[in-house]
Specification:
The structure is a homodimer.
Chain A: H1 3-18, H2 25-32, H3 36-42, H4 46-69, H5 75-83, H6 102-105, H7 108-131, H8 138-156, H9 160-177
Helix pairs in contact in A: 1-2, 1-4, 4-5, 4-7, 5-7, 5-9, 7-8, 8-9
The structure holds a DNA duplex.
DNA sequence: GTCTATACGTAGATAGAC
DNA sequence: GTCTATCTACGTATAGAC
C-alpha cells in the first residue's frame, strides 16, 4: 500500500474511533508510519484527509448496502437482510459517528458527502418500501434504528441493545405486513 | 445563579454542542464568566465537571420521560407521546452525543451514569410494553429510533429525518397492534 | 517525496498570592 | 473563593533542505 493510501486508511480508522475533533494529524502520521512532511505533501491538511476518508467510506458502505438491498426476496426480507448484516457495533458507524461531530456539521464540505450517503440509502429503501405498499417514512425509521442501535450499544458497553433494537423493528414490520 | 452552578450549566451546553473531547476547560470558564482559579476551586477538573453535568442531565431527562410515560392512555399512546415530545433536535441529544465520544466510553466513571440512564428508560418502556403484550425488544427499538433520528437530522442539517423516523415507527406500532 | 526546524496557540492543569 | 503566573505537551500547520 502506498504512503498515500496508508494515510487514508489510518484516517478512516481514527475518525471511526475518535471522531474528527478527537483525531490529530500527528496520530494519523504515526498510525500510517509516515512523516509530517510526507502527510502534508499528499494532503492539504486534516480536513482534506478527512474528505478522502469519508469518500472511501461512502464507496464501501454503498457497495455493501447494494448487495443486501438488491438480493432476492420480499421487501421485508431484503430490509431485514440489510439490518442484520454483520457489523462491528462497538467501533461505531463510520458515517454516523461523524454526523455527531460539531466541526463536521459546521463545515459544508465535510457534512454534505455524509448527508448524500444517507440520502442515497434512504432512496433505495423508499423504492423497496414502495414495492410493498409500505409507508415511505419507514426508510428513516430503519435507518434510525441502525444509527441509534450503535449509540445505545456504545453507551451500554455491549451489543445487546443494538440487536434488540434491530430484531424488534423487524418483528414489528413482519407483524404489520402480515395483516 | 452561583458560580458553581454557572460552571455546570456551561459544561452542559458545551458538552451537548461539542462533545467531551471538543470541550475545553477554558471554553467552560469563558461561557460561565468564571476564572481559571474559580473553576479549579469548585471542581477537580474537566472530568469532574462533566460528571456533574451528566448527573444534572439525567435528572432532567428522567423527570421529562416520567411525565409522558405515566400519562393516561394505552401503551401505544404513551409511547407515542414520549416519542413526540418537543426536542431541540439539531442540538443533539444531551446523553446520546456523549455515548459516541471515545473518551467517555473509555472511562467507566463517565460512561456508567449514561448507561444507567438508558437502562432506566428501557425499564420503563418494557413495563409499558408488557401491559400491551408487546415484544420487550421494542424498548430498544424505540430508544434507537430517537437516538438515530438525532444522528440523521444532524447529518441532513434539518429535522425531517427525525420526524419521519418517529412517525414511521408510531404508524408501524399502531398497525401492528391493530391486528 | 520525505525530513527536520520552527512557530504560535490551546489543553489541562498546579502553585501561591490576595 | 478568585486571581495571576507558570508549566509541559499537543494541535496544526509552514519553510526549506535533501
Amino acid at each position: 500500500m502506498s504512503t498515500r493510501d496508508r494515510l487514508v486508511e489510518s484516517t478512516r480508522e481514527l475518525l471511526r474511533e475518535r471522531g474528527y475533533t478527537g483525531t490529530s494529524p500527528k496520530a494519523i502520521q504515526q498510525r500510517a508510519d509516515a512523516g509530517q512532511g510526507s502527510m502534508y505533501h499528499h494532503f492539504a491538511g486534516k480536513q482534506d484527509l478527512a474528505l478522502a476518508a469519508i469518500t472511501r467510506n461512502a464507496e464501501e458502505l454503498t457497495a455493501a448496502a447494494e448487495r443486501e438491498l438488491s438480493s432476492p426476496g420480499s421487501p421485508t426480507e431484503r430490509i431485514a437482510a440489510w439490518l442484520r448484516r454483520e457489523r462491528e457495533i462497538l467501533r461505531g458507524c463510520p458515517m454516523g459517528v461523524l454526523a455527531q461531530d460539531l466541526e463536521i456539521i459546521a463545515s459544508d464540505a465535510l457534512r454534505s458527502p455524509i448527508a448524500e450517503h444517507f440520502d442515497w440509502i434512504r432512496g433505495q429503501l423508499r423504492e423497496i418500501l414502495a414495492e410493498g405498499d409500505l409507508d415511505a417514512r419507514l426508510a428513516d425509521t430503519f435507518l434510525a434504528v441502525l444509527q441509534g442501535g450503535y449509540v445505545l450499544a456504545r453507551a451500554a458497553g455491549n451489543t445487546e441493545p443494538f440487536t434488540d433494537a434491530v430484531e424488534g423493528a423487524i418483528a414489528l414490520l413482519e407483524r404489520a405486513t402480515a395483516v
